[in-house]
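User: For a reading group we're discussing how well predicted structures match intuition. Take PQ loop repeat protein. Before you show the prediction, I'll give you the sequence so everyone sees exactly what went in.
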Amino acid sequence: MEWTLVVGYLAAIIGAFYVLPQTVHVIRVGSSAGLSPLTWQLQVGASTGWTVHGFLTGQPNVWACNIVVLCCAAIILIVICRDRKLSWNVWVLSVLVAGALVTVDSVFGAVAYGMLIIVPMTVSMMIQFQALWVAPDFRGYSWFYNAFAGFTQILWLIYAFGNHEQAIQIGASATFILQMLCLGLHMVKRAGVQLPGVAGHKPAVPAG
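Assistant: Thanks. Here is the predicted 3D structure of PQ loop repeat protein, as structure tokens, for the group to look at:
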């Protein structure tokens, strides 16, 4: 269906920059507060996997989009490493995740890849949710990133179901749900609601 291809390329154009608000935000505020290093380690690995999946399946909208996401995620991880004085061996996990995803996609196909990609994506978002929950200072986190990401996943789902792309169907569904949970939590914290397990927080954060 041609209209789904149009949606797919729209998703690629928008999706290529959905991490950009978070990238710009963390650089602008000069703080990685509220961000989970593990989330972005896994994001780098997952984006690499999606990039290769796009090449293997002949979907330029998939690989082009994820190359940009990969670069943005890598920049965020670099900022986190510098801000928190972390060792550069944090990149080892990203390489291992990417290697596992590419191997499964190449050997077992799209469905197996779709089931596996849920693991790093789900774990990364759950860890980010937990980090955001307990963080008294969450200046480094961008609500616009979450909203933008959620909209992008809706476009990917339309494309995936219209073109029977099972890997994206599985991955985008899980990601959308988790992104909305993080967005909801961020809105609650910005409103100044005191959450269990948090000693105190700073609701007045820069917009975005």
